[in-house]
Design brief:
By secondary structure, the protein is of the alpha+beta class. Helix content is 36%, strand content 10%. The protein is built from four helices and two strands, in the order βααβαα. A two-stranded parallel sheet has the order 1-2.
Length: 81
Amino acid sequence: MPKLEVDNEAATRLAQNPEYHRRTKHIKIRHFFVREMVTEGEIDIHRVPTEHQVADIMTKPIHKPRLISLCNKMGLGTQNR
């Protein structure tokens, strides 16, 4: 089963809780794809601390030491240049 690692606690709770809430009424049904996949057991969602979020390499500017660490976690095998 694929595992989705998320560093946002609110997103994790929203994906795992199939109930309708007043605070989520603005979210359109088409955005609940992940919630449906979690409910159906198609994917598993886990909370990870921000410092371990490998996807940050694609979404944020990061300093060189963290860049090297994340590249290594992705299996890119960078050297400390």
